[in-house]
Prior knowledge:
By secondary structure, the chain is an alpha+beta fold. The chain has helices at about 15-20, 50-55, 55-70, 95-100, 110-125, 195-200, 200-220, 235-250, 280-295, 315-340, 365-375, 380-390, and strands at about 30, 75-85, 85-90, 125-135, 140-145, 150-155, 160-165, 170-175, 180-185, 225-230, 270, 350-355, 400, 405-410. The strands form five sheets. A four-stranded antiparallel beta sheet has the order 1-6-7-8, with no helix packed on it. It has a three-stranded antiparallel beta sheet with strand order 3-2-12.
Amino acid sequence: MISPGDSFSVSYAGAPEALARNAVPSPVSTVNPRFLWHREEPSSGEKVSQDDALGIDTVFSCCNVLSQSIASLPLDLYRVSRKKGQETTEKARNHRLFNSIKRRPHPEMTSFRWRQFMMVEVLLRGNSISQILRDDSGSVTGIYPLLWDRATMKRRESGEIAYEYAVGKTRVVLDKSEVLHIRGISNSGGLVGMSIIESLRESFGLTRAIEKHGGKTFANGAAPSGVLEVPEELSDEAYERLKSSWNARQQGASASGYRSTAILEGGTKFSGLSMSNEDAQFLETRKYQRSQIASFFSMPPHLVGDFEHATFSNIEEMGRSFVQHTLRPWFENIEQELDLLLTEKERETMYFRHNAEALQRGNFAAMTQGIGTLINSAVMTPNEARSKFEMNAHPDGDVLLGNGTLVPISTAGQEPQQDQPQQ
């Protein structure tokens, strides 16, 4: 039995008191059998696990930018209602889930850190799961992130999906309704997401091999390996002295002789054997791998530090493409899974939505120009615009203006009233 005082080897292993409820027996059939590294090894000989992949600079940049971009956006719960025959949409601030998702999914974690962790998990492993706690009425009281590597999806005899989760030596079973599951791209009927790292292990293995090659090159003072030729046979003492003297001066970036001129005695000659980095196109290969990895995550090159082809004109377009083709699919994926936190009746009138407009906060000119256009087109009231900048409402700001003359929309097209002559 697990108690709240028990310690786990991970920071967040779900709510201990809830995980302790359900123990074995587990469901009967496994949906996602584990296959890690018994598959064919990459041709490069380098095995890269999901955690090791974060040591690749481009993978870290992709995960960092994507997870922070999504976690930093406002995520609100909205309610659609009909008032006086008209449909209105407003934030459901009085709903318990509003603050749980927007502020704090559980007492020990902010919404930003929870969503950031969730995105890193799904980017590296293809899946991210969180445990859902509910009260007796079925309302959500907390959401705790779990580690996908400790979970196995199984199917009960009734056909329902369940999750078997390992906590220490204990295995507990969570019903489908107790788990929030975000999936990446899938080739297994949509039940389980695919790990980008595992699916494209050849590319990531090659990248790791290239990085190790660069490290070993600089460990030798960035100089090619070769042989020292001497005109006559050396004694054991002279051999060891020449070897230690050469290695001390020429190996390692921190060696005392790094980038220094070697002094050879007694007619000794150095003959290089290896190709230079330029001959092996080392830098070009690194650039290509960076571009390849960025494309796996649908990341624009400039967001992973590649400005080789960036210009003032195309970098703005790449930013828009990042929102449309990279972030927007993730918005839809997450929002539709979050809708499952609502009851069936609530889903008829309520939904979650990311506020992508917040991405414009760093571009004040574009934001104000867009809002000005909406005001002039009688789409937004001045007070609605002021709320975007967290400004207090104005007493006369709830009137729609338009016609390019900023007159109330209700009086647009009317003849101006004539001033009454004074008596």
